[in-house]
Amino acid sequence: MSELKDVHAPSEDEAAPSKGEAAKHKAARTQRWQYVLDACIIIAMGAILFWGASSQFSNKYNDVTRYQCYGISFWQGNAALQSLGLDNNAKSQCAFLDTSSSSTLAQKMQARHFPAFLISLVEAQPTSQAFHALPPEYPLLTLAIFSPPLFAPTAWYQVIFALLMIIAAGVIYLLIARYRSRPAATVFAFYLAVGSWATALGRFDLVPAGLTLGAVILAARARWNWAYVLIALATLLKLYPAILIPVFLIAQQTQIRGSWKVWRRWQGLALFLATCALVTLVSLLLNVANTLYPINYFLNRPIQVESFPGTLLWLGKFVHNPAQYIFTYQSLNFTSLLAHKVSLLTTFLLVVGLLYTFWLQWRGKLDIYTASLVTLLVVVILGKVFSPQYLIWVTPFIAYTGKQNWKWILSWGAVCALTTYVFPFNYVDIPHIDHVYPVIIARDLLILGIVLALLHQATYKQYVME
């Protein structure tokens, strides 16, 4: 009997591999189900966001139709816009384009006695011709986003653009799932669906947001050269990622030991500057006027109604200084006798908030993720412009830092819900906006409270390693 038992019963060495194989098969099955779950969440997120974006398709003056005008104008010139019926009269989709920006700049340069060769360069860049009509609101690199949907029929541009932004949202989801956790990625999808329902696929902000998140992830792993290249590309799409350069420098310098003259300390920054300079040089060679205009556009914009400075102007009516609504720079803004004072106050608070954030990071009380998040939040809440799509800049970092913590979900979820309640549901006309303005104030105060809570927590936090 013992011999039969020895023959048929597996030894310990034989049983061990079978147990190991079973564990491997179980892990493989679990991983497959996780991939299926990721796919389902991305599809659900994309469907919800597409629903939101489609609510704006009927408006031929929305942001995506402007992108379409920029793309056609750059590649085919003003003649193509006219042949497609997009620039035939003052009410046409692309009638907002200024085809005289180069000649106007040349006249100003002549009046100020600029060198003749510079004036000739500008005069040789007529904005009405192909390859010279750069987007006046955005840098040159945005054409890489605006152009691919042009291969589809003109009527399908908004649909194709929305599908491309779904891919961008999916990439961000996978980045968070891979480098943080799946619960954090799921929370990101929730925030995006609730707070950017009508804007995520109707703007291109998901692309610079994804590049910025990727840059911070690389920086946290000391892949500095690639991190600086990615943040440069993000900056060349939207200017705001440049504010994270001090965060990168502080994190990098605290990691590197030795002399401050070591090239390794500054190589990444040099790559950032070189990348920005190269693309800007190409842009200047194509059109000087529209290359410089985005900077002028940003600096001269008045206080927008949804911004925190705007809430201060709105409250001015209770001290006999009512603000007036004006529509300029493609947004609804405020004009008021208090505007200059409020602008100085909030700019001062912005600078103080940024410097204090950088100081906390330098002291080791903020890691690079939280420092990036607080920096972006300070810029968003204290800047003179707040647009609903600005939530897209911050949402990946909120999800990455807060993960599935209920306090984060409750607070930022409320910010998202209030933002969507304002736009698109009540951002109709001035009476509607004035009626829901207390909601705007509540949203802005909630963001400000989150910033102050993060700074307070970091102030009394022990040293953290990057």
Question: What's the quick description here?
Answer:
The chain has 466 residues and is mostly helical. It has 21 helices and two strands.
Provide key terms for this protein:
single chain, 466 residues, mainly alpha, two-stranded antiparallel ribbon, globular
Mind explaining what this structure looks like?
- The longest helix has 43 residues, at 12-54.
- The termini are far apart.
- The protein has helices spanning 2-8, 12-54, 63-76, 78-83, 101-111, 116-123, 143-146, 157-179, 182-195, 206-220, 224-235, 245-255, 263-286, 288-300, 308-315, 339-362, 368-382, 390-402, 406-422, 430-435, 437-459; strands spanning 324-328, 331-335.
- The chain contains 21 helices and 2 strands.
- Strands 1-2 form a two-stranded antiparallel sheet.
- By secondary structure, the chain is mostly helical.
- The radius of gyration is 26 Å and the shape is globular.
- 67% of the residues lie in helices and 2% in strands.
